[in-house]
Amino acid sequence: MEKKRDKDKKAKKIIQKIRHKYRLVVMNDDTFEERFSFVLSPLNVFTWGGMSLLLFAVLLTILIAFTPLREFIPGYADINTRNLATIAAIRTDSMQLALEKNERYIANIKMILEGKEAQSADTNVKHKSVKPDMDKINFARSREDSLMRERVEEEERFNVNLKDTKGRDDRMMKILLFPPLKGVVTSHFNPSVKHYGVDVVPTTSNASVSATYDGVIIHSAWTTGEGHVLYIQHAGDLVSVYKHNSALLKKIGDNVKAGEVVAIVGNSGELSSGPHLHFELWYKGTPMNPEEYLVF
């Protein structure tokens, strides 16, 4: 019991010391005039000091998290760095595919020079050398062949190049266009609300955007509403437009081929509400519905 009483007395003494008040006085050293004073206690000092440290830590965290200062944190990668890393990965993959094709091509050339049978570039299966008997082939045009030719010519009548527009109706010809992005069309072509293209949401993040046809880059820039925008001029007064990209891989004057990667899909611009590609087709100054010529 005595030990418990001693402990209680010690605890009370400690509490009294913590709550004991002291006066901090600031005086003029020459005249000893009192300027101002504070009434403090150890408990108040610890309380206000702890709250001040906590407030300082919160303000410092907010300052670093919501300002460019966060880029100076070791290990933090900014948006530009991540975009550059994605572009580098895509280019590395393209270079690897090209290198594999060149290696297969050189291997086949070597085998041909050595008198061996060349291999297929895709399956590596040897082709059997078969020499046809030209004397036994009947080159006369059969009735079935003539019917097939007429059917093929009828089907191909509209699949012409845009350069071959002389003497035809002034409309966009149906050509073989390359889909710029594989995904889901979330907003369709609707000129009545000034939506002159389609919005395509990719199935994977950081997907690449490809040129829909051979052409030349005529516009590659940033706009406030539409973000990173790319315009490609194709043959026959056809222009394709690619908006809201996260990064552009081509500049004005660059020549591109159909299917060549020209940008990375993104969510740039004030008019964008999520990662997608806004794609437009213009023929002789008239907007066309891309879904009539492409399958996304």
Short description:
The protein has 296 residues and is an alpha+beta fold. The protein is 30% helix and 24% strand.
- Mind telling me which CATH architecture of the largest domain this is? Distorted Sandwich
> Could you name the CATH topology of the largest domain?
Glucose Permease (Domain IIA)
Round the Cα radius of gyration to an integer and report it: 37 Å
| Pattern of helices and strands | HEEHHHEEEEEEEEEE
Structural class assignment: alpha+beta
Count of alpha/pi helices = 4
Using the coordinates above, name the CATH class of the largest domain: Mainly Beta
Q: Globular, elongated, flat, extended or rod-shaped: what is the shape?
A: elongated
Largest sheet: 10 strands, antiparallel
- Portion in helices: 25-40%
Low-confidence stretches: 121-130, 157-170
Number of domains: 3
The averaged pLDDT comes out at 79
Question: How far from one another are the termini?
Answer: 86 Å
Query: How much of the polypeptide forms β-strand, as a percent range?
Result: 15-25%
Looking at this structure, what is the CATH superfamily of the largest domain? Answer: Glucose Permease (Domain IIA)
* Total strands: 12
